[in-house]
Amino acid sequence: MNYKIILSLFIILFFNILSIKALEDHYTLEPLKTFQTCAYIADYKNSRLFSVGGDYQQPSIEIKFQNELKDGLFVDTLIISSNDLLKVKLDPSPIIKVCDETAINAKMCVYPTYDEEETDDNDNVDLEKRLKDTRVSLDRLIDENLFEIGFEHVMLNSQKLKETKDIFTFEVHKTSIYCIVFTLHDNRLEVSEDADDNKLTVIVDWKQSFGNLL
């Protein structure tokens, strides 16, 4: 059998298997504890190799919540490429970071600390030195058009999710590592004493060109 036919059959089988598994990441958000997650998303629209295995879909990031957002809960949400995120000094900075393998290799899950003494971790120290004097505020990044790739900064609440039918979608038009930075704000007049009631589960679906590859 021709090796090209074998390769084509393998790719078709590969994507058929992937299409069965709609992988989603579930994260727990707590008030004022900024959470960051990063993953690689590729747009293979013009790739002949990947187009063999299935129907192309617009790569995107879909965000939804496990339970309906209660009135008074707001989730400050920043979706941004890793290169652009490295230009920004977040305030508050993320205290939890979750990355896929590509994002880990790109050092998107290290913890540079600007106000603390340097650690013995050379990777962290080198990254801190490289970024310390170059990061700008998010407002400045936007106002001065310093970003390379389109991004989204949105406040998700019950009203916003009604407008988007419970799923907020960010379309990806350029291959890159993308990061989402969440900060949960609880402005309810009465806050439950139950700690779990003050947490929120967010679900992120990283959709690739031909299925959920993560």
Quick summary:
The protein is 25% helix and 28% strand. The chain is an alpha+beta fold. It has one domain (3-106, 135-207).
Attribute tags:
alpha+beta, 214 residues, Autophagy-related protein 27, 4-stranded antiparallel sheet
Would you kindly provide a written description of the structure presented here, covering whatever features stand out?
By secondary structure, the chain is of the alpha+beta class. The protein has one domain (3-106, 135-207). 25% of the residues lie in helices and 28% in strands. The protein contains seven helices and nine strands, in the order H-E-E-H-E-E-H-E-H-H-H-E-H-E-E-E. It has helices at residues 3-20, 48-51, 82-85, 101-105, 122-131, 138-143, 158-163; strands at residues 25-29, 35-41, 60-65, 73-81, 96-99, 152-156, 168-171, 176-186, 200-207. The chain has a five-stranded mixed beta sheet with strand order 5-2-8-4-6. It has a four-stranded antiparallel beta sheet with strand order 1-9-3-7, with no helix packed on it.
Mean pLDDT: 80
Most strands sheet: 5 strands, mixed
Order of helices and strands: HEEHEEHEHHHEHEEE
Provide the spatial order of strands within the biggest beta sheet: 5-2-8-4-6
Radius of gyration: 19 Å
